[in-house]
From TrEMBL:
Protein family (similarity comment): Belongs to the binding-protein-dependent transport system permease family. CysTW subfamily.
Pfam families linked to this entry: BPD_transp_1
InterPro entries linked: MetI-like, MetI-like_sf, ModB_ABC, NifC_ABC_porter
Chief location category: membrane
Domain ABC transmembrane type-1: residue ranges: 55-258
UniProt xrefs under CDD domains: TM_PBP2
Superkingdom, natural source: Bacteria
Reported function: Part of the binding-protein-dependent transport system for molybdenum; probably responsible for the translocation of the substrate across the membrane.
Bilayer topology term: Multi-pass membrane protein
Gene Ontology cellular component annotations, sorted alphabetically: plasma membrane
Organism in which the protein naturally occurs: Nannocystis exedens
Protein name according to UniProt: Molybdenum transport system permease
Molecular function via GO: molybdate ion transmembrane transporter activity
Amino acid sequence: MSLKPGRPGHAHLAIGLLAGAALVFFALPLVGLLVRVAPAELGRQLAAPSVQAALRLSLVVSLYAAGLSLLLGLPLAYALARLPFPGRGLARALVTLPMVLPPVVGGTALLAAFGRRGLLGGLLEHGLGVILPYTTGAAVLAATFVAAPFLVITVEGALRGLDPRLEQAAATLGASRLRIVGTVVLPAIRPSLVAGLALCWARALGEFGATITFAGNLQGRTQTMPLAVYEALHDSPDGAVALSLILLAVSLTLLAALRGHFFKGAG
C-alpha cells in the first residue's frame, strides 16, 4: 500500500490562510491606531513643546545608543565569531540576556551597577563627580543595554557565515589583520551591519522599561517618546494614540529606507 502525497494546492491554501491570519494579527493594532487619531489631534500633539522635546530627546538618546553599541558591539561580535577564548559560550549568553530580560529588570540591574550605591556608581561619584541615575546619560546607557545585543547577534551571524577563504587570500597577499578586517570583512558584512545597526537604533528608540527605572521620567531631561506615551495614557488617551502614531511613522520610515538590507532579493 503506497501513500499518495497530498495535493500541493491544499497545502498552499492552508499556509496562505495561516499567513493571512498572522498578517491580520500584526496589522489590526496598527489600523486601530490610524482610525483612532483625528488629523487635528495629531497636529496639536506635534505642535506641543513637550512632545517636540520628547521626540528630540528620543532621537538624541537612540542615536547615541546606536553609536555606543557600534563602538562596543562590533569588536565584541568579532571576538564571539572568530576568537576562541575560555567562556565564549557564557559571554554570548550574557550578551543575549538583555534581549529576554524584562526591561524593568534591566533597569534595576543598571541601578545596581551604576547607581550611587552600585558597584561602580560610588566610584564614579566620588572619583569623578559623575552621577548617572536620572540623567540623559542614564537614558543612553539604558537604551544601549537593551539594544546593543541586536547589533552583536546580527553581526556575529554574518561573520560566521562569511567565507574564510576571502580572508585567507588577503593574508597570503601580505595584508595585516587590521587591513583584512577593514578591506575584506567589513565590506562583506555591510548589509548585515547596517541591518543590525538599524534594529539596534529602532530598539533604542522604543525603549521604555529600563529607561524609566534607571533614568526616570523627567520632562526635557529623560522623558523620551515612549515615556511620554505612557504619561499621556493617564490624562489624554487620544493624545497617547497620536504620540504612538508618530513613533510608528518614524519606525516605518526606517524600515522602508532599509528594506533592501532586511529583505535582500525579496520581491
